[in-house]
Structures are given as C-alpha cells and as structure tokens.
Amino acid sequence: MAGLYIVYILLRCSIWPEDGPSVDNGESYGSIASQTWVVFSSLVPLFGLIFSVLGTIMLGWATPTEAGAMGAIGTIILTILYRTFSWVLLKDAFLKALRVTAMIMAILLGGMMFASIFVALGGLGVVRDFFQTANLSVWPTILIFMLITFIAGFVLEFISIMIIVVPVAVAVLRGMGVDDVWFCIMFLIVIQTSYLTPPMAPAIFFLRGISPPEIRLADMYRGVVPFIVLHFVCLGLLIMFPELALWLPEIMFERLPGGTPN
Known about the structure:
Blueprint lengths: L1 H14 L16 H27 L5 H18 L5 H34 L2 H12 L3 H18 L2 H17 L5 H17 L5 H7 L8 H24 L2 H11 L9
Helix pairs in contact: 2-3, 4-7, 5-7, 6-7, 6-8, 7-8, 8-10
C-alpha cells in the first residue's frame, strides 16, 4: 500500500509538477553530495520518531498506549533540538489534540453502544448460523464479509467493527481454509477504504479537525479519490497474489505458510 502511494505521488508530481512544488526557503545546498546529506539528515529524525512508536510495538518494548506517549515525547525532544519549542506551541498542540480526541471519542462511544446492543441481542449467533447453513463457496463468503465491513465503516469505528465482524468471519473462513493473516489484512484495507470513501468518510472528518481553514471539505473529498482507487488496486493484488500479504509476517514471526483461498 505504501509503495502504491509513493509510485502514485511520484508519477503525479512528474506529470503535474505544480501539484508538488519544491520548498523555496532561499537556501542553496550546492552539490549533489550536499543535497544528499541534507535529505539524509532530515529523514533520520523522522524515522527515529516512527521507530519510537511502531518499532517499540513490534519489538515488544512498549504497548500501543506507551508507544504513543513515546512518540509524543520524541516530538517534543525534536522541537527542542530544532529550537522551535515554545510553551505557546505546546499549549496549542494540547488543545488541538484535546479537540480531535473528543471528536474521536464521541464516535467511539456511538460505535461501542451499537456493538454492545448487537452482541447482547444475539446478532453474532444469527450471522454465524446464516453462513453455516447457506453453503456458500469461499469467494462469495469473503465478498459478503468485505461488503459488510465496507458499509459498517461508514457508521462505526474500528473497534466496534472488529468486535462484530472478525470473530464471525474468522470462524467461518478458517473452516474454508482461508489464512487468518491474509483475511485480516484484507479486512484492514477495506476498513481504511471505507473511512476514506465519501459521503461519510470518517478519516476525512478527523483530518478536517486539524487542517487549515482554507482547505475545504469538498477539496478533501476530491483529493481522496485517487487513493481510494489505489486501495482497490491493492485489494486486487492481494487477491491475485496472496503471498504479498503473508511473506512479511512469515519472516517476522517465522510462521509456516497458512492456507489461502483457492
């Protein structure tokens, strides 16, 4: 997915340079070696910040909550090193984080309430019984679960969708020989696609809360269309070549190749 993003952005900026203009700050970096050093020295802090969050989780050094705190501390350290830190900046960051968190928590509350009622009324059992008695083949079953996930992403947050869909889907598809890792990666991509797809597009509303006022919601709707297409391309590649989703987990956790849909 990240590779598709990079290729698309490079192609678009090559064809339409005005969509990705260079930053003109009045500085000249001279030779290629000097430019390479500037790029390298600029990327090291960024990758260090990424490692402080994702790397510590993958290595088991921190929980996701702890890793988020480490990322926040790392950001403060970088602002101090770059000599851009100020108490006013820190206060503004806290206020913006508070507004975005409050908005997200309101969405989480609604989603968790729906999921709790759905489970309490026996919805999981009804769905499980339906798939067990429908005698559908592998791909129609996968398509139905993906469609349910896509629609649910319009109105529910990730945790609620995971509570509702994943237990049933994994139980049904595992019996059909579908690899759990492959399905969960497809599941996550479909959720992200749903979160980007207008008119609901929860991800756009999250981004709108931290965007400059001159960026309109309509501009964001138009801007996500190419990335939605890339998501569907990625889904197609994972369907045609399931190994793309499995080789990295197999290397990281040294797990044996599992079954994928035939």
